[in-house]
Amino acid sequence: MPDLELEVGRRRVRLTSPDKLLFPGDGVTKRDLADYYAEIGPALVPHLRNRPFTLKRYPYGIRGQPYFAKQAPKGKPDWVPTRRFRTWPREGGSRLVDFALVNEPAAAVWMVQMNCIDMNAWYSRVDKPDRPDFVLFDLDPPESRNGFAQAIQVAHLIREALERLELHSYVKTSGADGIHVLVPITRRSTYKDTYEFAELVSRGVEAENPGLATTEWLKKKRRGVLVDHRQNGHGKTIAS
Predict the structure, then answer these.
(1) Distance between CA atoms of 77 and 81, rounded to whole angstroms?
(2) Whole-angstrom distance, CA of residue 103 vs CA of residue 48
(3) Which of 95, 124, 199, 225 sits CB 3.0–4.6 Å from 154 for a disulfide?
(4) Are 178 and 138 in contact (CB under 8 A)?
(5) Residues forming beta bridges with residue 218, ordered by sequence position
(6) C-alpha pair distances (Å), 199 with each of 61, 71, 87, 136
(7) Closest C-alpha to 78, from 57, 53, 107
(8) pLDDT band at 2 (very low <50, low <70, confident <90, very high)
(9) Which of 90, 20, 87, 3 has the alpha carbon at shortest distance from 52?
């Protein structure tokens, strides 16, 4: 199939290889995914707007190995803005990165052109990059037949613990095989604050429910659903 130009709002987005299968088992193509993001864009973009965006690219579809790219690609449309922040790679040192911002539905569709399937952005926005606006509890189920059911049970336990603190929480799938529990907060706390808070709640749930919930990082020592507070940190991303 030849390349397409999609009209998304007031933009035109070029889509190459629109018939490329991204979900072979379901027959979902790149064009299908682009149309989907164009349709849900008005609901999605408020959750992404002005958050530094990391591209998780799937050049071989959902079954292939993805890779992450923080730097905005060369040749991006000039209507996709960027903001520069310093990052600290695991291999050491630091570097300046120009992060793309997905501030309109057309930008989400352009990310599909870049072979992004899920949309991954920071917990904070560019005007206050060191102040996240939610706390995350990342639930990783055990590799067992009822692992996901256990994760659902632990999500309810976290909600109950948060309700005792008069905090509201919301649940979503993680983009992989787990569950995310998010707690919206005002943008006053640092990432260190949110990390420490999530750790306290996680360890409390673990203490009250041994064997069901755990904070043990090493998989070979783990028993139950991992309640991971370690995902609260500067530069971490979440699938929206």
Answers:
(1) 9
(2) 7
(3) 225
(4) yes
(5) none
(6) 35, 31, 24, 10
(7) 107
(8) confident
(9) 87
Enclosing H/E stretch for 85: strand 82-87
Q: Quick check: 4 and 12 in contact, CB under 8 A?
A: no
Residue type, 16: T
At the fourth CATH level, the homologous superfamily of domain 4-122 is: DNA primase, PRIM domain (3.90.920.10)
Nearest to 124 by CA among 108, 116, 135: 135
Contact 215, 99 (CB under 8 A): no
- Inform me whether the pLDDT recorded for 145 exceeds 90: no
- How crowded is residue 25: how many other Cβ atoms within 10 Å of its Cβ? 9
CA distance linking residue 90 with residue 92, whole number of Å: 5
Copy the structure tokens of residue 45: 């973009």
d(CA 108, CA 110): 5
Residue linked to tokens 């995310």:
180
Given a cut of 90, is residue 30 above it in pLDDT?
yes
Helices (H), the chain: 30-48, 105-113, 147-164, 191-208
- pLDDT tens digit sequence for 183-212: 999 999 999 999 999 999 999 999 999 999
Q: How far is CA 53 from the centre of its chain?
A: 10
Task: Please give the structure tokens belonging to residue 55.
Answer: 């591209």
In this predicted structure, what is the pLDDT of residue 92?
83
CATH of 134-239, picked from 3.90.226.10, 3.40.190.10, 3.40.50.150, 3.30.70.3300, is 3.30.70.3300
- Bridge partners of 136, per DSSP, are 182
Residue 14 dihedral angles phi and psi, to the nearest 5°:
-80, 130
Domains of the chain, by residue range, sit at 4-122, 134-239
